[in-house]
Amino acid sequence: MCAEDWDNPERYLPSAYSERVTIMQDALTLTKLSPFQRILLITDGTLTELLEAYLQEPIIVIKLAETMLDSTEAIPALEINIGQKIIKRDILLQGKETGKNWLYAESVIVPDRLEASFREQLLGSKTPIGKLWLAHRLETFKEKLTFTAEPAGELADFFKVVTTDTLLSRTYRVFSQRLAIMMITEKFPQQFYL
Question: InterPro entries, from UniProt (predicted)?
């Protein structure tokens, strides 16, 4: 494999997409990132466990917003139409001991495609989604959609960084029983994981 192939994030994206899904991608050179930054972006495992191992600190969820509503637009990546019930959820993954926010995530979840017990725990607890998948032994497949680098902007205060500092992010959709059950975007400051 040529060295330049390692620079291209597309090598970690699926080779075929449904025509109904629009994929967007900003330029991102993977070889300019630290090894752990690359792992956080391309893993299909749960970030909570990776962060706990790397940081040697338990991670907790801080829910910023969680709303069940009717979708006001079609969301092709989740194969849903206008008017279908969704849950919009914004959270922080925070160090239990340090109180430091390590990651911001926004999710769009299709509640009708989840088992009732999973849905109830998701809405009623502060357990990270990845840990719920494990606790419920939910078989999932994650399809990566994008990798980006962007200014922290309005998320800067959560991380105590300046608005022009870089956040790295990834967006992926999660399937269970061949149905798209959620789409998650996770963002974290590049400087936290050098």
Answer: Chorismate_lyase_/UTRA_dom_sf, Rv2949c-like
